[in-house]
Amino acid sequence: MERFKNSIYCFVILGILPLIGKGQVKPGRDLDFFIRQGINSSPVLNDYRNRQLSNRIDSLRWRAGYRPQLTASSAGTYAPVIKGYGYDQALSNGQSLEALLTVNYMLAGKGKINQQLEQTKIHRDSLSFAATWSVLDLKKNITDQYLNTYASQEQMVFNAEVYELLKKEELILKKLTRANTYKQSEYLTFLVTFQQQQLAWKQAEVKFKNDYALLNYLCGVADTVVNSIKAPEISVSAIVPHEFFTTRYKLDSLKNENDKKGVSLNYRPKANVYVNGGYNSSFLLQPYKNFGTSAGFMISIPIYDGHQKAMQISQLSIQQETGTAYKEFFVRQHEQQLKLLLQQIREHQNLYPGINEQIRFAKSLMEVDSQLLRTGDLRIADYILAINNYLSAKNLLRQTHIDGLKLINQFNYWNR
């Protein structure tokens, strides 16, 4: 039976190939192939990689901002006095020229530097977490579509198998009908079922091609050739401490605390020092001697701003309380969801013995009816009923199997 099924499968694949274009059928691909293709071609993951590189550059820019800043500047004015009309030269000096080279240095305390370093690290960790989560989403979606495609492939192979079986029966029934063992109307009833099975096979072919094309589209694979795919190997992962999805709340909490530090540091005294040198002259007195240098400082001390600091701290505290409430709710829902998924997986596994037993009985009945059909001791309508029961049982097993794998995929996604 297994050899017969494999031969039918090859026949089906070779049969649908002319419908989709020229070329040879490529070897069967597995789930890992499509996941690798999806990850390599994802523009979202590429965006996260570029944003992480940009974050490193931002960190370097921030460090550079706390180093001495060298600036060259020049300014000149000319205020003419014509026939006694013009600006007061006591104020305008008539004309002036300034060409300076200035070094500014902001005196930043260790607390401010550490706060900025921590902010950069939190942002980097947030990008890394978002990229990892995006990979998990992509893997889950690709796996779901792979399971859909595999189910379509199995349906196509099974329908082809049943079609070949009915084709043999049709030849036998045609001879029996000509021998007046069965009425013409009974033979036509079977022929309708036979043709319906042929249409079901063709429909399964179309669905398989569409599901396979959607899988390629999702993974960014530019390929119009339909390939066979291997049976998915998915098992329930071992239960681990569920820390991954709560990482976002931890990062939000760290960012909130860092923002509070930033608010407090913004209300500390700030100091800048500068040194410049160059030429600054009004050309009124010994302009050739107006080369020089100067140094200075600036101190800013916040005194009163209407209690804005306390307001900002209060806002951040409210945000933190909101985040804590969301985290507690998510943890409860997450644990409940995992328990529900495990329960559904067990329930699906418990269905297999009953479905397999039903398939065994339906297949045995169909084989017995097939023998009775050859001797004219069975109504064709009863044989058709046995075939439909067998088809229903096999379809139920296939759908239960795929649904179970999807539940396992969903459980593995959240079990992190």
The number of E-state strands comes to 4
Could you estimate the helical fraction of the residues in percent?
55-70%
Per the CATH scheme, the topology name is Outer membrane efflux proteins (OEP)
Taking Cα atoms only, what radius of gyration do you get, to the nearest Å? 39 Å
Beta-strand percent range: 5-15%
Number of helices: 9
- What is the makeup of the main sheet? 4 strands, antiparallel
Number of domains: 1
Shape-level CATH architecture:
Up-down Bundle
The SS-based structural class is: alpha+beta
Mean pLDDT across all residues, rounded? 85
CATH superfamily: Outer membrane efflux proteins (OEP)
- Strand order across the largest sheet: 1-2-3-4
Detail the poorly predicted runs: 1-26
How far is the N terminus from the C terminus?
A: 42 Å
The outline comes out as: elongated
**Secondary-structure element pattern, one letter each:** HHHEHEHHHEEHH
CATH class: Mainly Alpha
Structure write-up:
This protein is an alpha+beta fold and about 425 residues long. It has one domain (about 1-65, about 110-265, about 310-415): Up-down Bundle (Outer membrane efflux proteins (OEP)), CATH 1.20.1600. Helix content is about 70%, strand content about 10%. It contains 9 helices and 4 strands; from the N terminus they run H-H-H-E-H-E-H-H-H-E-E-H-H. It has helices spanning about 1-20, 30-40, 45-65, 90, 110-180, 185-220, 245-265, 310-375, 380-415; strands at about 70-80, 95-105, 270-280, 290-300. Strands 1-2-3-4 form a 4-stranded antiparallel beta sheet, with no helix packed on it. Helix 2 (about 30-40) crosses helix 5 (about 110-180), helix 2 packs across helix 6 (about 185-220) and helix 7 (about 245-265) packs antiparallel against helix 8 (about 310-375). The protein is elongated.
